[in-house]
Design goal:
single chain, about 150 residues, three-stranded antiparallel beta sheet
């Protein structure tokens, strides 16, 4: 607006260096690339791995509950589930009423997870070796805490 001081380079640098969202997104993109490259032989991307692992471990889920568990909006979850359903890794069927859809992992999906887990473990070990066990556990704890804080707003 007219009459206001322009943002300084120092302020912009502080925003870039100190912004939790910007730095988390940069790290997330780098980690996504690393995990996707490692998981490529399994045919599963890290975003798909997360969905499959959640459904395999805690499912079946309603779409709403799965979206909440993965902190995703339902539109994004629906888009992420399409290829998993097309590959036969999950089924998405009507629930108790017409508005509810239930996501269940299939035997083929369990097989995909079984193939992907050793590759995933390799990346986990690389990260743990790089930053150390204590720092990895602290990072994961901090990320869960930040996620919880965002759910209160």
């Amino acid at each position: 607006m007219a009459g206001e001081e322009p943002v300084t380079n120092a302020e912009m640098e502080a925003a870039l260096v100190g912004c939790a969202a910007i730095n988390t997104r940069i790290a997330a993109r780098a980690l996504t690339r690393l995990y996707d490259e490692a998981l490529a032989p399994s045919g599963v991307r890290i975003t798909q791995f997360a969905v499959l692992a959640a459904v395999a471990f805690q499912g079946p889920f309603t779409m709403k509950a799965l979206a909440r568990a993965l902190v995703m909006d339902r539109t994004t979850l629906t888009a992420d589930l399409r290829p998993l359903e097309a590959q036969g890794f999950v089924t998405v069927v009507p629930g108790e009423d017409r508005r509810t859809r239930v996501v269940t992992i299939t035997p083929r999906g369990r097989e995909a997870i079984r193939d992907a887990v050793p590759l995933w473990l390799g990346v986990q070990a690389r990260i743990e070796a790089g930053i150390g066990t204590a720092r990895l556990h602290a990072l994961l704890s901090d990320l869960r805490e930040v996620t919880a804080l965002t759910q209160d707003v």
